[in-house]
Design goal:
The protein has one domain (about 25-80). With about 80 residues, the chain is α+β, with helices and mostly antiparallel strands. The relative contact order is 0.20. The protein has helices at about 25-35, 40-50, 55, 60-70, and strands spanning about 1-5, 5-10, 15-20. It has four helices and three strands, in the order E-E-E-H-H-H-H.
C-alpha cells in the first residue's frame, strides 16, 4: 500500500492490478490487515476514532458496502461478525 494523506493505492500482485482506495476503504483495509479480523462493532469503534469526518461518521451500511467491495477485489478475506 502506498498512501497520500488519507487516500491510498494498493497493488494486488496476484491479480496484477492497482486499486485506488478512498479514505474509508483505506482505514478498513489497514485495520483488517493489521488485526486479521474484526466484528462490525469493533470496526465502527475503530473508525470513529479516526480524525477524518467521513470515516469517523461511517455507518454500518457504508462499512458493509466497502467491505463487500474489498472482498470482491480479493483485498480482504475476513467478514465482520
Amino acid at each position: 500500500m502506498r498512501r497520500w494523506g488519507d487516500e491510498a493505492v494498493i497493488y494486488d500482485a496476484y491479480a496484477g492490478a492497482t486499486h485506488y482506495l478512498i479514505p474509508l476503504a483505506t482505514a478498513i483495509w489497514s485495520r483488517l490487515h493489521a488485526q486479521g479480523t474484526a466484528t462490525l462493532p469493533e470496526l465502527s469503534r475503530y473508525l470513529s476514532e479516526i480524525p477524518d469526518i467521513m470515516v469517523a461518521t461511517a455507518g454500518p451500511t457504508q462499512i458493509e458496502e466497502v467491505l463487500g467491495e474489498l472482498r470482491r477485489l480479493q483485498l480482504v478475506d475476513s467478514e465482520p461478525i
